[in-house]
Amino acid sequence: MDEDTPVPRRRSYDLPLPTPPDVLRRGPLREGAFRSALHEPRTAVVIGRWLGAALLTCFLTGLFSHLLQEPPPWLRDHLPSRPVSGYQITQGLHVISGIAAIPLLGAKLWTVYPKLFEWPPVRSVGHAVERLGIAVLVAALLLEVFTGLLNTLQWYPWPFPFRQTHFWIGWLATGGLLLHVGAKAPLIARHWRRPGPGVAQRRAFLGAVTASVAAVTLTTAGQTVPWLRGLDLFAPRRPDIGPQGLPVNRTAVQAGTTAVAADWRLRVDGPQPYELTMAELLAMPQYEAELPIACVEGWSATARWGGVRVADLLARAGARAGARVRVTSLEAGGPYRVTEMPATYARDPLTLLALRVNGEVLHPDHGYPARIIAPNRPGVLQTKWVARMEAV
Ligand SMILES: Nc1nc2c(c(=O)[nH]1)N[C@H]1C(S)=C(S)[C@@H](COP(=O)(O)O)O[C@H]1N2
Ligand SMILES: [Mo]
Questions:
Q1: Residues within 5 Å of ion ligand 2 by Cβ?
Q2: DSSP-based three-state secondary structure for 136
Q3: Atom 21 in ligand 1: which residue has the minimum CA distance?
Q4: Is the model's pLDDT at 1 over the cut of 50?
Q5: Ligand 1 interacting residues, C-beta cut-off 6 A
Q6: Closest ligand 1 atom, residue 297 Cα
Q7: Which stretches of the chain are assigned E, i.e. beta strand?
Q8: Most exposed: 87, 261, 296, 363, by fewest CB within 10 Å?
Q9: CA nearest neighbour of 294 among 59, 57, 96, 85
Q10: Which of 209, 231, 253 is the last residue of a domain?
């Protein structure tokens, strides 16, 4: 790649550093230690474009997911409850692009890894800073795809909280990526369009990379794309397998909600608080809505939900139209025992306190006696086993 390294312009901050003695140039540091013709910029740029597109998709959809889950107060009341399957699509894309990024990242790193052993290791202070930036970028990207992939398997073999870590490393990786693209802009521009004679194996290599991306995508995307369901070999979930034809993340046994007391009542708090038995809930106007559960882990499944409108329950408590609602589950603990729903969702006619799914009373794993189901919302916020709703 050396012919493509622009002659470094010497700036005042870019102090040259002494070259270490040549006796240290051994193993991979030797001249010509890497013989494949594919360690060259055009290949790196082509794969870099695909990887960049995947990472950008991943970052934007991830940001959207984060904002829905933890909206800052100024945004809270402007989050849209439509399109109904918005989150299903964006989070499906998030996991699809994240999985596709894994072989792309592997191919990109393989293409450029001889650079790790370039000689001299650092030419100047500026060069050292650039290399440090790449180290941070690569570490952040590897950690990001690794934590993301393990999250889709609900496996958390680390002591830190997943979501916050994944969010902040996402920013670190994106910032690092922008700096990297900025620093390499002249090189990228030179190789953006196919230059004169090609490298013999490049076509085969890019073909193999494409095949890998297609393979991992086609065998996992069925967890959210219905027409790929038959190929869903490696995704942790099949959206049609589970009680009542729907998957379950947290079961009633795990949540300790298998035995719902016979005198269960829904409590609704607001200016005029009240309680309702199941019979009273069923006596209210019942509505149906066809809505997906779209889990942050990338699977989604659509079902026909039936129950009472959240808006009706809030109105009955005398809540004002712009009220948010805090929902508390019967669950004893767990991070999703209490969730908060902004006003846009609470007043949406499709947002239900569901009592039935696909025509049957909710299975305990799907939230019996009652659960929240709202359009365009992350699955984690579709609270199951509801005990109490509170207008705030
Ligand atoms: N109370 C409570 N509700 C919950 C959860 C939970 O852990 N506790 N998990 C959520 C998650 S992560 C998802 S994806 C959906 C799954 O709903 P399902 O099990 O009916 O498919 O429920 C949500 N509701
Ligand atoms: Mo979920």
A1: 249, 295, 379-380
A2: helix
A3: 248
A4: no
A5: 246-250, 255, 293, 295, 329, 331, 334, 336-337, 365-367, 379-380, 382-385
A6: 14
A7: 266-269, 274-276, 287-294, 300-309, 325-329, 338-341, 352-357, 360-361, 371-373, 386-391
A8: 261
A9: 85
A10: 231
Q: Which domain, by its residues, includes 292?
A: 245-391
d(CA 101, CA 92): 14
Same domain for 97 and 29: yes
Burial status of residue 76 (CB atoms within 10 A of its CB: 0-12, 13-18, 19 or more): middle
The CA 392 to ligand 2 mean position distance, Å, reads 25
Nearest atom within ligand 1 for CA of residue 386: 1
Cβ atoms 292, 85 nearer than 8 A: yes
- Cα-flanking dihedrals φ and ψ of residue 206, to 5°? -65, -35
CA-proximal residue: ligand 1, atom 6 (nearest): 336
Pocket test for ligand 1, best of 88, 246, 249 (most atoms within 8 A of CB): 249
Identify the domain boundary among 205, 231, 257: 231
Q: Does pLDDT of 177 surpass 80?
A: yes
Place of tokens 């990024």: 101
- Same structural domain, 185 and 211: yes
Distance 386 CA to ligand 1 centre (A): 11
Q: What is the pLDDT of residues 181-233, one digit of tens each?
A: 999 999 999 999 876 667 889 999 999 999 999 999 999 999 999 999 999 99
Q: What is the pLDDT of residues 31-88, one digit of tens each?
A: 999 999 999 999 999 999 999 999 999 999 999 999 999 999 999 999 999 999 999 9
Residue nearest to atom 9 of ligand 1 (CA): 380
